[in-house]
Design a protein that fits this description.
The complex is a heterodimer of chains A (about 300) and B (about 575).
Chain A lengths: L1 H28 L13 H10 L6 H13 L14 H36 L4 H15 L2 H15 L15 H27 L2 H8 L4 H13 L1 H16 L2 H6 L5 H11 L2 H29 L7
Chain B lengths: L1 H4 L6 H15 L2 H21 L7 H8 L1 E5 L15 H10 L4 E3 L6 E3 L2 E6 L5 E6 L13 H12 L17 H5 L11 E5 L2 E5 L7 H4 L10 H7 L21 E7 L3 E6 L13 E5 L4 H9 L11 H10 L4 E14 L9 H9 L3 H9 L4 E2 L21 H10 L11 E6 L2 H18 L3 E6 L1 H9 L5 E7 L6 H4 L16 H12 L3 H18 L2 E12 L4 E2 L15 E2 L3 H8 L7
Helix pairs in contact in B: 12-14, 18-19
Chain lengths: ~300, ~575
């Protein structure tokens, strides 16, 4: 298993290098630059700012300098917020996104797996139909509709929560629900599908025939296989839920990394774009690796190779 | 995977308990504690919500004199010599004070750090007498030398301050900033003694005192900056709350990126007795819809801007919460005069005359904007352009026929470019229909992402492009200078020697009446040549709680905080708790 992990980590290096290179050059090819403003300053002043950050040097030289910086752990200064570094901005905002992501994931898993399980056990019952219709609605309802609706209902019509902010424990509730409900809908459908497939298998009938209780059959024998589709979904989902919360972060004005990820591209904030892209890339690679390990643990037919 | 290994245990109870505990182990402890807290608070909130509504944040602020302000974007910095934006301006005026400051009602210059000043007979030399009780927030007195060292930093080519050109009215300031002059003593600043500052200008500059209220003219604490790093380098950390020193009515207290920046009353400010607010909290809320919801939930006293779609609803249901102030800006279409057919003056004028701007202002914008028939907003420092570019379809058709396109025949396809935003599209669609209906010409619409749009305008890679120009200070030349030949914001390719000459002459005269007459002539040329089509003059719609006092409508959206205070009223308390607006 260690060798498997080591090999996967080594494989990551060229992946990250490719991502860094493509991002760097695509960003530079995009029209405009970090110091282009709607109200232009004089050409001399603009040239002075650009040369301050070395943006007037040949592109290849800048690229090598950036890579060299990354090897030394220096992600560079930020252009938009001149008294902060990229590392500082990421370190300051990622814990917020992570916390939001964890709450959402917890809501998604608890609600999704429970609903999916019950729906699978009571197949074609009223519960099954209503839960699955709700899940379908949840998948179709985008977060930018659900978020404002929750805020209108719970922050404005009844003052239970704040409409935006990240100060108090209760400020976590609405954003986590908004993000979590969407994923719980997916997970519910995946769980139901996975469980139904397993419950039809011979070994389940055998277990029941041997006199195992329903609970034992379900949780000891069926769940382990039935949950597999959820686990493989969890890799990209967890990365997405932690990183892709831009919409929710904007709706509830949460100081997370997702906002930087999007606005840095709009601002042509080159160093922050590269920093966030690489950071996300590392996260996604890491989550995929974790999921692969989990798959092998769950399914004895698979081996580390 | 501990959570999944737990599934090997049989029995539903065991499974659920393990499931939770294993997830708990994976999460940092504070998260777990927070989760329990969140559930308990939620339950308590649910339980009590039926009885009385909890007090809102603003009603707490009203009692404690804490102003909660929605502030658009995260400030780049609060170093007045580095930043360029409006959200930064809102914060910096609380933290610093220039030689003069602004009257809260009409923004006329009133004494700031300078308690008085004299102007020489030729209007080119200003002598400022600084007040002796003006102090930095670390207790040091503010001297004339502090101002001079600040201006030196502002103009250092190595700092590359983007607003350095605001100081170019001073003798040799431009040369020093461009590196042509190395010796700063040749720049027109001089300390006559510790508390007397002399500034010599290139020409009579009647708006000079208004210019001084711009943050690029504020003093910065050079000795503190030096302690935190090289003075002329960016990335200096002197503006972090732990290092910060300013000279304004407030000092920096807290700064959490993308979350909150708060300032509290400064005890060392010379006019502290007048300052009633104890604290101001700025929230960088980029989405206007989020900001509006936050306001309705009683978390903000004042918003950055009201979403256009909600303006009508506020007008009908809660007019006392909506404020629409005049704003010194004009929404225009730039015309690229370097390419046919827009290189023909008659075509440009025809397009301008065939645009029903009253319809655009009243039916599309709807926030009290005035249709624009000239470029400089009317009554800008008592100047109103006599020349007009009216809505006149007959004349437009005639001009188009003269240019060789009778009834639009043979007219090449025209493209209107704008940055992606719903209201820009709505205006462009209306213009598209007007030009089709009245001139029978076909127009295409092209929307671009923000930077692409800016780049296309800069490189003249467009035909018709929307633009919004906001004045930096209240003087007609803040507008008319935009169209000087080769000016950085001209971006139409239009040049006119007579126009340049008139403005240069205006810059050299101290006689305000003659100066305005020269502006009249210049603006007449501008509108006759029409490298731009003025569409409407801006307003600034925003939401404001009635408890906020001393917050007057001003042309530049400036509200000097030392005159602002909060007065809780029973009426507004009950209203803020039971909003009556229907769901959109």
């Amino acid at each position: 298993m260690l060798r498997f992990i080591a090999r996967r980590v080594l494989e990551t290096i060229p992946v990250l290098l490719t991502i860094a290179t493509v991002t760097f050059f695509m960003m530079r090819l995009a029209p405009g630059g970090p110091f282009d403003k709607e109200k232009a300053t004089t050409p001399e002043i603009k040239a002075a700012v650009e040369s301050y950050y070395g943006l007037n040097k040949p592109l290849l030289e800048q690229y090598l300098k950036v890579l060299g910086g990354y090897l030394k752990g220096d992600l560079g200064p930020d252009y938009k917020y001149p008294n902060r570094t990229v590392a500082e901005l990421i370190a300051g905002s990622f814990p917020v996104s992570l916390e939001l992501g964890c709450w959402s994931l917890a809501i998604a898993l608890v609600l999704g797996v429970t609903a999916g399980l019950i729906a699978a056990i009571r197949k074609n019952s009223l519960f099954d139909y209503s839960a699955m219709s709700l899940a379908m609605a949840g998948i179709c309802l985008p977060t930018f509709v659900l978020g404002p609706l929750l805020a209108l209902g719970f922050a404005i019509h009844v003052h239970w929560f704040n409409a935006s902010g990240w100060d108090f424990a209760r400020d976590r509730v609405l954003p986590a629900l908004t993000l979590g409900l969407f994923y719980s809908a997916y997970i519910a459908r995946l769980t139901r599908g996975g469980m139904l497939e397993i419950l039809n298998q011979d070994f389940i009938r055998t277990a029941s025939a041997k006199g195992a209780s329903t609970a034992r059959v379900l949780f000891k024998h069926a769940l382990r296989g039935g949950i597999a589709p959820v686990v493989s979904f969890l890799g990209p989902a967890a990365a997405g839920i932690i990183t892709g919360s831009f919409v929710v972060e904007t709706i509830f004005n949460i100081p997370g990394l997702g906002r930087f990820f999007i606005t840095s591209a709009f601002n042509r904030d080159y160093t922050l774009v590269l920093g966030t892209v690489l950071f996300y890339a590392v996260l996604i690679v890491a989550f995929n690796l974790l999921v692969d390990i989990a798959q092998v643990c769950l399914n004895p037919k698979l081996k580390f190779e | 995977m501990p959570g999944i290994r737990a599934t090997r245990n049989s029995g539903i109870t065991v499974w659920t308990i393990r499931w939770h505990s294993t997830w708990g182990n994976q999460l940092p402890l504070p998260l777990v504690r927070n989760s329990i807290l969140a559930v308990i608070t939620a339950l308590i909130a649910v339980f009590f919500s039926g009885c009385t509504p909890p007090p809102t944040r603003t009603s707490y602020g009203d009692r404690e004199q804490i102003l909660f302000r929605g502030n658009g974007a995260e400030p780049q910095d609060v170093d007045p010599q580095i930043v360029t934006g409006v959200p930064e301006d809102h914060i910096i005026v609380a933290l610093f004070e220039g030689l003069v400051s602004e009257d809260p009602r009409d923004l006329h210059p009133v004494p700031g750090v300078a308690e008085s000043w004299e102007v020489s007979g030729d209007a080119k030399t200003y002598t400022f007498h600084l007040r002796k009780n003006a102090k930095w927030s670390d207790g040091d007195p503010i001297t004339a030398a502090d101002f001079i060292r600040s201006y030196q930093r502002m103009l250092m080519p190595t700092l590359a301050a983007e607003y350095a050109y605001m100081l170019y009215v001073v003798i040799n300031a431009e040369g020093f900033n461009k590196g042509q002059i190395k010796d700063f003593s040749r720049v027109g600043f001089k300390a006559l003694d510790d508390f007397t500052l002399e500034v010599r200008l290139n020409g009579p500059t009647p708006y000079f005192l208004s210019l001084l209220t711009h943050y690029s003219w504020y003093p910065v604490p050079i000795s503190v900056i030096e302690r935190c790093g090289p003075v002329d380098q960016r990335g200096n950390r002197w503006t972090r709350p732990e290092n910060f020193v300013g000279n304004g009515p407030f000092v920096l207290a807290k700064w959490r990126v993308n979350d909150l920046l708060s300032v509290r009353k400064s005890p060392t400010y010379w006019d502290a007795a007048r300052v009633k607010l104890q604290e101001i909290r700025f929230y960088p809320i980029e989405s206007l819809d989020t900001e509006e919801r936050t306001f309705r939930a009683g978390q903000l006293h004042v918003t950055y801007e009201a979403p256009l779609a909600r303006v009508d609803s506020y007008k009908r249901n809660q007019p006392d919460l909506l404020r629409v102030d005049p704003y010194l800006g004009t929404y225009i279409y730039r015309l690229n005069v370097t390419k046919p057919p827009l290189n023909d003056r008659r075509v440009r004028r025809a397009l301008a005359l065939a645009m029903d701007r009253a319809a655009i202002a009243t039916r599309i914008r709807r926030a009290g904007e005035a249709p624009a028939y000239c470029f400089t907003p009317p009554n800008c420092a008592a100047y109103t352009s006599r020349a007009k570019l009216p809505y006149d379809v007959e004349q437009a058709r005639r001009l188009l026929a003269e240019a060789g396109y009778p009834d639009g025949r043979g007219f090449p396809r025209l493209t209107i470019m704008f940055n992606t935003l719903e209201s820009h599209r709505a205006i462009a669609e209306a213009v598209q229909q007007m030009w089709k209906r009245d001139l029978n010409i076909d127009v295409e619409l092209e929307n671009h992402e923000w930077m692409v749009y800016i780049d296309n305008q800069r490189t003249l890679n467009y035909q018709v492009g929307r633009y919004g120009w906001i004045g930096d200070y209240v003087d007609p030349n803040s507008f008319l200078n935009m169209f000087l030949s080769g000016g950085g914001n001209n971006q139409t390719g239009w040049t006119n020697k007579e126009y340049d000459r008139l403005l240069a002459e205006a810059g050299q005269t101290g006689d305000q009446e003659k100066r305005y007459e020269l502006f009249q002539e210049a603006e007449a040329i501008l509108l006759e040549e029409a490298p731009l089509i003025p569409i409407y003059h801006y307003t600034h719609p925003y939401l404001l709680r009635p408890s906020v006092q001393g917050w007057y409508p001003t042309l530049l959206d400036h509200h000097p905080y030392k005159y602002v205070y909060l007065q809780p009223t029973k009426e507004n308390l009950t209203r803020s708790q039971t909003p009556t607006l229907a769901m959109p």
